[in-house]
């Protein structure tokens, strides 16, 4: 036998016959030359003492490389072919082993295969393992390769890889003959570490082109996979963190994003000043720090946090969170480190939580923005065995940096929003006083958007003669500027209402004021690029007289009021909608309507009936339905409307004003037509005194006689006919004298030698209030006494 021969060369082959019991039954001369054992020494010995046990499978053919032991004890790498021997019943009765030294080229290929930096496997056309290199064997638990040869892949490939389609890809390559590339993932059952593999599969063909097997090369791409995951997480943070201008929600978004993709537990603690919108002190915090827990998330269903949401915790100076705040950088600590152990032991509950959940590594990252420390984010791992690496710390710092900027923006918004809201509430009326003409109730609901508070307002202005003015308005835009503009308009409406202008004339003056404000803003250059070119506003102004039971109203681009009559009928009052304030040059038209006693008039801004879910017409119908619902009080009617209409977070401010009308009966009002004759003043004075005695108001007779005498005398002397006196008894006593002249009287200081000029001065000193109001023809001078 030629020792250099091989299985393909029978003349130089080493041939060994193995019986059914695994013992050598025949030993060729080539075997003696190759392995040094004589026939007498080899025959009768177990074949496993000479050959590796892997190939000695009697019922299966096999061809490959294996080791055999030479007589002198060293191992020879041989190219071996095993052929099973069958008896007459075709049952295995042994095998024939043909062996030859491995060729030099074959050895080089085998070495390259075994030493490859990628995991390599070879399967036959039945998808049974033929060859695996050391990396592939390591992925399967470092079992001996010989024990895997000829084993179907289902019995060896990790279950996790099988679930992710490893076997499907193998079968597809074997059946179609097309190469495939994909990425699969496995988990080490011992360490529970996750691995990613870039896998190539290609068919192995014989010289005739037939698929005889499948080769697999898998590259460990775990590092690249987690790098992509970190990059994807960072990209996602741009959209997922800071979706609202809410400090707590922003902190929760950071925790929600990082668990479980970066950490098994994340907590976010902030300084109390941040939550209040205040400016924290600049620079790092270098002492034991008190922080409030605003967010935490964990991978486990069981509670991991040692601090409840909303509670405060004091972090000692040696703890990782306090250290990171003092140093102004991320701090990494793990079980076994002194600072970690001391910090955990400092709090019994934290110590129990750490032990229970196996938390072994933490990263404390400061939340800093614009040089200001806001708080700290803590990232911890326990479920996954691996600790944080430098790339994880870099990612955590990036996430914390993004979150810190968003938290700071939310903090600044909280402060500015609070300032604007305080300004707005200070400009809105406080407690609406009980009015003789109406019973009122109001609600104001700020918008839930990030735009800030708006310029909605309402007001109830008492007028002379027991009348009342009802006002509701809406300034376009949001923020402090809108609130300030609202305050200016509300003040202007009160001033114009004090002059007792009709609704259409009042809106005309208000329109001029808005145009003037626009001119002032242009002159100061307060409107920059992208802002509205003009201040815009809408307003509805209504005046109700409880004596005549008539209501006059005018609108400047504002929604029409809704009226509920005493019989339960609800209707929209058809008010002529004039242009919004600030347009200029277009008239306003007043609408007059008689309102039965007990009618409820609803004035509101469009935020009440506007929504993303329905249009204004649908919102108006819902308002009518809510107003029609029975309500024991007008306050409860307000609540019913707010529950029925605006969403939980309205996109615009909501202002609602409800007024239930009252009426004065004829017994409370007396009217006299006074002839334009000074001699009739005494008769008028006497008739007034008799009226007061009938009303049981004898104590008011002296002052009232003097007031009536002065007002009627002035009307006769300085006015023009017709002259009329009206006395009204309600919560106060009101005397009104009307005449046909438009000339308004005024107070003046009389000289010592003047015979007159002191009448109005006496009226002003003796009464609670007095004033003048203009009418279409003439004027009315009134004086009011408190009862």
Description:
- It is rod-shaped and about 165 Å long.
- The chain has 787 residues and is of the alpha+beta class.
- Helices cover 32% and strands 29% of the residues.
- The termini are far apart.
Write the layout of secondary structure elements.
Blueprint: E1 14-19, E2 24-27, H1 29-35, H2 39-42, E3 62-69, E4 75-86, E5 92-101, H3 104-114, E6 119-124, E7 129-132, H4 134-139, H5 159-163, H6 166-176, E8 180-187, E9 194-205, E10 211-220, H7 222-240, H8 247-258, E11 265-270, H9 272-275, E12 289-298, E13 312-315, H10 320-327, E14 331-334, H11 338-346, H12 348-357, E15 361-369, E16 372-381, H13 390-427, E17 438-445, E18 454-462, E19 468-478, H14 480-498, H15 503-524, E20 537-545, E21 550-556, E22 562-564, E23 570-572, E24 577-578, E25 591-594, E26 600-604, H16 616-628, H17 634-644, E27 654-661, E28 669-674, H18 681-694, H19 701-718, E29 723-729, E30 732-739, H20 759-766, E31 769-774, E32 779-786
How far from one another are the termini?
A: 140 Å
The general outline is: rod-shaped
Major beta sheet, specifics? 6 strands, antiparallel
Measured on Cα atoms, how large is the radius of gyration? 48 Å
What portion of residues belong to β-strands? 25-35%
What is the strand arrangement across the widest sheet? 13-12-11-16-15-14
Helix content: 25-40%
Low-confidence stretches: 1-11, 528-533, 750-756
Average per-residue pLDDT, rounded, comes to 84
Q: What is the overall number of helices?
A: 20
Structural class: alpha+beta
Total strand segments = 32
Brief characterization of the structure:
With 787 residues, this protein is of the alpha+beta class. It has 20 helices and 32 strands.
